[in-house]
Structures are given as structure tokens and as C-alpha cells.
Design brief:
Elements (H helix, E strand, L loop, with lengths): L1 E4 L11 E4 L2 E5 L2 H8 L12 E11 L5 E6 L30 H7 L45 E2 L4 H17 L6 E7 L8 E8 L10 H12 L2 H5 L1 E10 L4 E5 L1 H5 L3 H11 L11 H16 L5 E2 L3 E7 L27 E6 L4 E2 L15 H18 L1
Antiparallel strand pairs: 1-2, 1-5, 2-3, 3-7, 4-5, 4-7, 6-10, 8-9, 8-12, 9-10, 11-14, 12-13
Helix pairs in contact: 8-9
Length: about 400
């Protein structure tokens, strides 16, 4: 199965790849595998479904383009997907990383069809030439996605973050390993596959981000990031976001550098922006989101010994407005509120458990007692802020 970059990745630094319409995969970390294999029943509705492990290797074509290919094992009951359509997609446009010409690779995306453009969970259009990159694609500064005024404008494109992670990952793999080396990847449910235009908020939860295994240098770095962001004051910070703007047909994207700079008030304004789809504020979603967060809070309070260091929380809804409140795109009057919102229209999921520790975990030498108070603090503040928006 040729793997493609997952176009709705809004945060994180590990490359998420699309395995099939309902499945994504990511490099296997033993601690994360251990978490999924011993997941408490109560938490399952708040995490992606774990679908097993797959072997992945690098493949280079005659032009030097790199692809990642998965070889599914029958023991996990995963059938190789058919490739009757959309075969000439993202993977055809990656250049050999050593060429370093990211502009050409990005512009190459324009000439290929978007994989499954009309199917659910897809962005509406391909990359446009609105993005210009230097010769090496790096996210170490915030200027990449900012205009001259320091704003991160709307993009007529996919969220660029997943592309950045994917290229870095290919670079690392090709420089360290030969083509035939097999790498283990985790297969997980694609939690946005049922949405036509997935609006996603990626929140880094808790007041502490470093794992127990972090070096002193890494620990100091993470502590500083927390102190300088809303992680310390609110127990939560924005790690990435994409919101479909129905009036323009584009996604508005924000990255982790934007999130790190926010004050508590800026955080609140960005939450409001997350619910603004261009021609209306989706107040109908506030109640179902808060209800789901409260349900998660009650589950987390009961999980003794768990510490979810560096994990994220996704809040998801569909940017395609419900039929009963749809209006022409040139209609700028406020739209009527929809009542009795169906809670299934929103989703809340915990992701990224590479640094999660719990009693009995093979890789966590430090057992903790009681629930994760830093995570609980973040959830409580998030609920309070969303409730204040609805008021």
C-alpha cells in the first residue's frame, strides 16, 4: 500500500500518513503501543481505534523520488486497498530530499489530482502558488506562514504542516537507512474521515510536556515553552488549527508557533475563531463540545497513575454547515442558530501517547499515584472558556 501524507495533520512533529480512507499510520513508539494495548475501556471512546502494526519501507523510483510503502500483515485482518483511482497523487511529486528544491515539489502538487477529491474528509482544493518556500523547508521560525504584518493568513490549500512533517521524515529515513529496512508503524483510526471539511483544533494538554525519559536539556526546553505560553497559566495551548471558511472555500490554518505566542485572552479569541466558519459563528456546537469535554474530564479523574505528558486533544467538527442553516455564500447576514444540535457532529479525541506513563507500562519506571492533575486543570479551563463564549 503506497502511503500518502495525511492532508489534515495540523500539529505534532511526527509524520502522519494516510493508509486508506479510514486509517492513518505513524512511526511506532513502544510506549505508545503499550498505551493502546492496555487502554482502559472507559477511555476508548476518546482515543482513535488502534488497528494494529504494519511494516513500512522506503521505495525510490527511477527519478529518485521517494515513497513509503506499507506491507500489511494478514494477522491484523487488513486487506490491501485497491488502486483503481487517484494513483497519481502526492507521492508522485516528492523529489529526492537531497535535491532540496521544496518549491518545485510543492508546485508539482498542483498538476496532480487531489486524492479522492469528492470523498469525505478531503480538503476542497490543491496547493496554489500562494505559498513560497525557501530552498530548505524548515519550520524553526514563525515567518513561514506569516505575511508582512506578522499575521497567518488564509491559505487556498491544504494545511502545510503535514507536508512539512512528511518531508522531514523522508529526509531522516533516507539519510539513516537503506531502502530495504523495514520500519514498524502503528495503524490508527482516521478520526476525521467522516467529515467533508474537517475543522480541527489540536490542543497540547497539561502543565508539563516533557516525558520521564527526557534529558536535562530537553526538560529545560519544555519547561521554558510551558512557562512562556498558556500551558502554565491554563494547562492547555494551541498546537495547530484548521477551520473551513464557507464564504471563501478555503481553510484558515494556524500552527504551533502561533499557539505558543498567545496570551490567555488570545487563546480565548482563537477558540472563538475556531468556531467561526466565515459567515457564521457556530454557537450550536458549543454545547455538544462542552458535554463531550465534561464526559472526558470525568473519565480522566478516575484514571489513577496515568500521566499524559505531551499528548494532544483534538476537537473536530464539519465545516460544511448543517442543511437547516445553509445559505448562499454571498449572503453575509447572520444565519439562524440551529437548535437541538446532534452531538455526533462534534468529536473530541486524545492523541499522541509516546510519553504517556501508567502503572504496569513496560517503559515507565516512575509509577505515579492519583489522576493527572495538570491535564485536569487544562480540561477544566477549556470547559470554562467555552462556556463563557456561549454566554
Amino acid at each position: 500500500v503506497p502511503l500518502e501524507p495525511f492532508v489534515h495533520q495540523v500539529g505534532g512533529h511526527t509524520s502522519m500518513l494516510r493508509y486508506d480512507e479510514h486509517t492513518v499510520c505513524k512511526p511506532l513508539v513502544l510506549q505508545e503501543l503499550s498505551f493502546y494495548e492496555s487502554l482502559p475501556w472507559a477511555m476508548r471512546q476518546f482515543t482513535p481505534q488502534y488497528k494494529g502494526v504494519v511494516s513500512v519501507h522506503l521505495k525510490k523510483d527511477s527519478l529518485g523520488n521517494l515513497t513509503l510503502v506499507a506491507s500489511p500483515g494478514t494477522e491484523h485482518g487488513l486487506v490491501k486497498r485497491s488502486h483503481t483511482q487517484g494513483t497519481k497523487t502526492f507521492r508522485d511529486s516528492w523529489e529526492h530530499p537531497s535535491a532540496g528544491n521544496s518549491c518545485a515539489a510543492l508546485q508539482g502538487l498542483q498538476s496532480h489530482p487531489v486524492p479522492g477529491e469528492s470523498s469525505p474528509g478531503k480538503a476542497p482544493q490543491c496547493f496554489q502558488h500562494t505559498m513560497t518556500f525557501g530552498t530548505d523547508l524548515q519550520y524553526h521560525t514563525d515567518s513561514l506562514l506569516e505575511d508582512a504584518n506578522g499575521n497567518q493568513p488564509e491559505r487556498k490549500s491544504y494545511n502545510p504542516w503535514g507536508l512539512h512533517c512528511h518531508r522531514q521524515h523522508l529526509n531522516r529515513m533516507s539519510s539513516k537507512h537503506n531502502e530495504n529496512k523495514l520500519h514498524q508503524f502503528l495503524l490508527l483510526e482516521n478520526v476525521v474521515s467522516k467529515y467533508s471539511y474537517p475543522c480541527i483544533l489540536d490542543l497540547k494538554m497539561g502543565t508539563r510536556q516533557h516525558g520521564d525519559d527526557a534529558s536535562e536539556e530537553k526538560k529545560a526546553r519544555h519547561i521554558k515553552k510551558c512557562e512562556q505560553s498558556t500551558s502554565a497559566s491554563l494547562g492547555v495551548r494551541i498546537c495547530g488549527m484548521q477551520v473551513y471558511q464557507a464564504d471563501t472555500g478555503h481553510f484558515l490554518c494556524k500552527d504551533k508557533y502561533f499557539g505558543r505566542k498567545l496570551s490567555p485572552e488570545g487563546f480565548r479569541q482563537t477558540l472563538r475563531q475556531f468556531l467561526c466558519t466565515g459567515n457564521q459563528l457556530r454557537t450550536d456546537l458549543l454545547e455538544p463540545i462542552v458535554l463531550r469535554l465534561k464526559a472526558l474530564l470525568s473519565v480522566i479523574r478516575k484514571q489513577s497513575s496515568y500521566r499524559f505528558y505531551s499528548s494532544s486533544l483534538l476537537i473536530i467538527y464539519d465545516g460544511q454547515e448543517p442543511k437547516e442553516s445553509a445559505a448562499p455564500l454571498d449572503h453575509h447576514l447572520p444565519l439562524p442558530k440551529t437548535h437541538g444540535a446532534n452531538p455526533a457532529r462534534v468529536d473530541v479525541r486524545m492523541i499522541d501517547f509516546a510519553h504517556t506513563t501508567f502503572k504496569g507500562s513496560k517503559s515507565s519506571p516512575t509509577p505515579y499515584d492519583g489522576p493527572d492533575h495538570g491535564y485536569i486543570f487544562g480540561l477544566e479551563n477549556l470547559i470554562k472558556i467555552l462556556q463563557s463564549l456561549s454566554e
